[in-house]
Amino acid sequence: xxxxxxxxxxxxxxxxxxxxxxxxxxxxxxxxxxxxxxxxxxxxxxxxxxxxxxxxxxxxxxxxxxxxxxxxxxxxxxxxxxxxxxxxxxxxxxxxxxxxxxxxxxxxxxxxxxxxxxxxxxxxxxxxxxxxxxxxxxxxxxxxxxxxxxxxxxxxxxxxxxxxxxxxxxxxxxxxxxxxxxxxxxxxxxxxxxxxxxxxxxxxxxxxxxxxxxxxxxxxxxxxxxxxxxxxxxxxxxxxxxxxxxxxxxxxxxxxxxxxxxxxxxxxxxxxxxxxxxxxxxxxxxxxxxxxxxxxxxxxxxxxxxxxxxxxxxxxxxxxxxxxxxxxxxxxxxxxxxxxxxxxxxxxxxxxxxxxxxxxxxxxxxxxxxxxxxxxxxxxxxxxxxxxxxxxxxxxxxxxxxxxxxxxxxxxxxxxxxxxxxxxxxxxxxxxxxxxxxxxxxxxxxxxxxxxxxxxxxxxxxxxxxxxxxxxxxxxxxxxxxxxxxxxxxxxxxxxxxxxxxxxxxxxxxxxxxxxxxxxxxxxxxxxxxxxxxxxxxxxxxxxxxxxxxxxxxxxxxxxxxxxxxxxxxxxxxxxxxxxxxxxxxxxxx
Length: 590
Ligand code: GLA
Known about the structure:
- This protein is 20% helix and 29% strand.
- It is of the alpha+beta class.
- It folds into three domains: 4-322, TIM Barrel (Alpha-Beta Barrel), CATH 3.20.20; 342-349 and 476-580, Jelly Rolls (Sandwich), CATH 2.60.120; 360-472, Jelly Rolls (Sandwich), CATH 2.60.120.260.
- The protein has an eight-stranded parallel β-barrel, surrounded by five helices. Strands 16-25-17-22-19-20 form a six-stranded antiparallel β-sheet, with no helix packed on it.
- Helix 8 (214-224) links the parallel strand 9 and strand 10.
- Helix 5 runs parallel beside helix 6 (166-178) and helix 9 runs parallel beside helix 10.
- Bound molecules: alpha-D-galactopyranose (GLA).
- Residues 96-99, 157-158, 209, 234, 240 line the site of alpha-D-galactopyranose.
């Protein structure tokens, strides 16, 4: 059996110095049929290790649930890393940040009364123990000492940026060891004295996260990790994008120089990201430093391997740098092929008021409930109440955005990002509906795990609105009777594809294409909503940008009768959508 250890100056693989040249690849952001391809391309760039987080809420979307099948099959992912002859580093949180919904922590746990987040508190620790009990056996049996690829496990994530509870870190270590993890344990923190001091423990091995000035940052790390090998736990070779901002890129020349400095110094590295992938469905997180800013659907990250798994100029340049320090295979991945281009007419339509009753169960309340109170942990929720002709306006706190309808007619939008809290009403009695979108749980900082939905009280000038019907919408997996109903609408009776799409509504169109080929969906003229391809919720689109195209992984597509469904919340110029030849992640800062 092989061994992996932390030596006086180096990591030791079978007692020999081993420079970890790792790349981050999150299995939860990549279609499972493409895991093998992405891992293979990591080895071709010269990487010897794959690093992945484990997103707790991806496996446990609701209390009591724990799924490790299909897209969630961590064991299979690690086995593919082993089959490629590579090592693995696993970072099972419990908190991961990663621009992921609530930083990976389950919303159902965060809303439990009395829970203490990321600290020694019994409700939280009991839940973590249960999570570890499910996930760590998958990792334990794949450790290097048992013939598997796993050489190290990380405890927490950049804890020094959040807290200073050493007892919490020690309890995590105790629980991890109790589950049979015997490989070295790492921590990572931003390359800053205060954070490095708080985020680790003397008995663990500290690593630092940074994206530039490698030599200086390694010197900072050395002050806190006086012995053993130095490692950049996350080398930020790109950055994430947020709605309404520019597309972030990191210059190849700078990345390459910083990587060269790192490797030349003998340090180990984990590229964050080697391949970013996609925030499918409702999985994206958000940031909030005074303004709530949700993360876009693409997690391309300007990484060496693009979102669609294609080598970039950065890939080739990094491969050259790595080749100075380690063996790099001769094989080079092929460049990106042109994706099939076609226009799809979405000529089946269902108005929101017809669709909503098919999309979830409704409960009645004598107060305004949060989404947590009705067990809706992500996505969209419909809130309805009665207003009178005397009501001028209603003041609401919305997390995070709401489209307002009065008897089915759009009457406005409220957005938390714009600090919008008051909706003017058109002096008409009727049913006020708010289609409330959870745009993603904050993944970094003190607002981690906030309550979502509408927050009480909702007031008009004269009263508190306290009678509500609330529907937890099932959009992640559209109910079959809903899709049947949408398919059964006839183009003649419902809409003409040349006419605009008005108000919230669902559209459906079918198309034939090249089976298994990656596609890029471009929704120019559409405003904001969700897209499904053959029943799979790709995620959110929004004219706020910067992203212009959504990546559609090839394995989702067959040759005939593919189904495209769009939920448009506002309106579109025409009911057509286009698949284009190449991705467009939007304008950059320059
Ligand atoms: C930190 C976190 C990561 C990620 C990056 C930014 O390093 O540890 O999870 O959020 O920032 O992409």
